[in-house]
Amino acid sequence: MKLGSVKVRSAAVTCLKNILATKTGHSFWEIYKKTTDPMLIYLHPFRTSRKKFLEVPRIDKENPLEGLDDTSLWIPQSKNHDIWIKTLTCAVLDSGGTKSEILQLLKPMCEVKTDFCQTVLPYLIHDILLQDTNESWRNLLSTHIQGFFTNCFRHSSQTSRSTTPANLDSESEHIFRGCLDKKSQRTMLAIVDYMRRQKRPSSGTVFDDAFWLELNYLEVAKVAQSCAAHFTALLYAEIYADKKSMEDQEKRSLTFEEGSQSTTISSLSEKSKEESGISLQDLLLEIYRSIGEPDSLYGCGGGKMLQPLTRLRTYEHEAMWGKALVTYDLETAISSSTRQAGIIQALQNLGLCHILSVYLKGLDHENKEWCAELQELHYQAAWRNMQWDHCICVNKGAEGASYHKSLYNALQSLRDREFSTFYESLKYARVKEVEELCKGSLESVYSLYPTL
Questions:
Q1: Pick from 55, 118, 194, 401: most CB atoms within 10 A?
Q2: Domain named FAT: which ranges (predicted)?
Q3: Cα–Cα distances in Å, from 57 out to 60, 98, 101, 102?
């Protein structure tokens, strides 16, 4: 048995014994002992014979907010996800904000089990906010959780390009490259999702339940989209749009403004771009393409040809690759990497293999360094066109290679009758495919089809 599993079992025993020894644990047992739930059989050995209930000491701090008011605690710096989530969960437990004695007794498990921390953290946040009478905890938690989502793409380029559904996840990966671990992002998304489902004591409608924390839901939607949670991203984008529309309506009624009472998606997109650098319209287009909703593209402005990228998305969506190719060629305002990737994709879909081959040779001669997305497109085009001598591949090292690079190496090795390298490269290509599937989400399997 591994040392880690021994620690987890020891911590689980400690937690169970302590919880069942409390007054709450005793009440639970008295209520459920007459039921036929088989779980009670497993819990019975952990009951103690003591008649005196275990008293959980209260954590009274002079300034309980101070312990959690630390940006490095909420945003992983150089730490990996496991260390970060354990540190954060234990810090929340030690802060004194949690009043539930059951939750307070879970610390031994939180110190040794990552998955357990991810499960418990939303409950801790909820319990803290339930006891928050002056909104001091709400303000603190909102600031740091919002800071986490903002940090996800603060240093990333906003030059993502529209691709076919096969490359939608790689597009999001490009935007969030070098940012926080996907596990960390999903953990924070789970907190937002759990809180949104809980009834606020003072709220009037279900819509108000989404605002336990004061968050910019557009930024949350962007992170959800990058984690392949497409329907969740759509929901948060809608919450953002509804809130902005309500705020605009209130402003108009206060100033007795006349005119249209509706807020268009174009005006919302302009405001969102000013506030956070994210275009609501572009995000909706990306989401709808991810879930395979062909008609929704036009509903959020895909049919309007004002913006170059919107126009390109529409052309690609309608498989009008000729028009897409011309637009990529003419629009100099688009970044060079986006244009090059778009031209490669368009030439490939038009079946212009010879022109693509010549174009790749030119790019190979011109570009000294390639971004990851362009490299993948280059390798894909090269093996499809049997272009073995004009690729950026400098060695056949299989380990660490991307999917299309591994596939290129495998086919080239088969051509050269290097069978050991062929099998090794093929193995790594399969590994990369599985890794790509792991990045997906069962919220929408549409984006997984190309990989499958």
A1: 401
A2: 219-452
A3: 9, 12, 9, 12
Element (H, E) at 269: helix 265-276
Asked if pLDDT for residue 247 goes beyond 90, the answer is no
> Rounded to 5 degrees, what angle do the CA atoms 361, 362, 363 make?
90
Alpha-carbon distance values, 337 to 168, 277, 351, 377, 420 (Å): 16, 20, 21, 11, 35
Distances (CA, A) of 68 to 88, 91, 122, 163: 9, 7, 15, 41
- Using left for φ > 0, alpha for ψ between -120 and 50, and beta otherwise, residue 245 falls in alpha
pLDDT digits (tens, 9 = 90+) for 158-209: 434 444 433 444 444 444 444 468 899 999 999 999 999 999 887 678 888 8
The C-alpha atoms of residue 204 and residue 213 are separated, in whole angstroms, by 16
Length of the chain: 452
Residue type, 140: L
C-alpha of 153 from chain center: 11
Report the sign of the C-alpha dihedral through residues 277, 283, 286, 287, in that order.
positive
Mean pLDDT of the residues in the chain: 82
